[in-house]
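FAQ: What does a multi-protein file look like?

Like this. Sequence, then tokens, then the next protein.
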Amino acid sequence: MKSEIEAFRIICMFGIVWFHSGVGVCRVVAHGGLMFFIIISVYFAVTSRRRHSLAERAGRLLVPCLAWSVFYGLIFYVRRGHVFPENYTLPSMVLATPSIHLWFLPFIFLVLVGIDRLRNIFEKPAVPALAGAAAIVSLLSAPLWQDMHLADPFTQYLYSVPAVFIGIFFGCYGRGDPLAGRLISATIVLSLLVLICRFHSEVGTLYMVGIVPCIFLFYSNVILAGNKTLFLLSSSVFGIYLLHPFWQMFFRFIGVTSCFLPIATFVLSMASVLLVKELFPGGIAAVWRPVRNRWHLPLVRPASAQRP
């Protein structure tokens, strides 16, 4: 287990909560946490030796997405009189869900299923260079696409494309020429510096935040040793992602504002998830298992096993 990666999962999840709270200070930096999650999700999918079935991927990502879509849809219907934003088309309803933060789950499902189906391609030595080149081109072209206004969640998809290429590049890093890998890595960082310093692009900032922690994918347990408390807190990250908009709505309702909003939301979300894990050690899997066995539905792993 990579201790530093687990620590950054917690930090970056706090960043996502901060970003969704709408606090202006460091908002772009906080958004970089999402890029980190996309990169490591792709990295672990590429490097995994385990074969995942479509049903497994659906059970881990689409079933929670559907369940929480119903949860938030009911809340929005009671509060606003409609489940989806009024300007949503059918694709937005399906892929963005009633609560926009859930867009990540269908997106990463499609990405991971694609990786599963193309796994043999990633063994080819040319893939790291191609993925790295695609990452560099997509990043340097950010000034052309970052201001495009697309329907939800396609803007989010557009911003996430370079992260997918970076994750593939990191995942295949050891399969190509080492010198070429180091040159591509340096060029990716240089591209981000160009975006930040020359174009003042927020894409450069959020990707720099997302990439820097990824060094611990290759050099793990350097700063932090294995720690049970760290892994316990890290196991709550997926649950925090699903739950935090609910607590944000609650705290906004009682008048909590400014930086206290994301802090209170994060703390209470984590506490809620850890409490549920303590009361129901099997998590949703324990509840889902009898239904799954009866109707032959996909497996759902507990939140601690998920990697957003």
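And here is the next protein:
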Amino acid sequence: MARVVVDVMLKPEILDPQGEAVASA
């Protein structure tokens, strides 16, 4: 799941509802 968090941090412009939910979890 760490990879998802890094992906979101690297792509703050691409904030998908799924990605955000996974990052929160």
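Q: Is there any per-entry metadata?
A: Some entries carry free-text notes. For the entry above: The chain has a mean pLDDT of 66.
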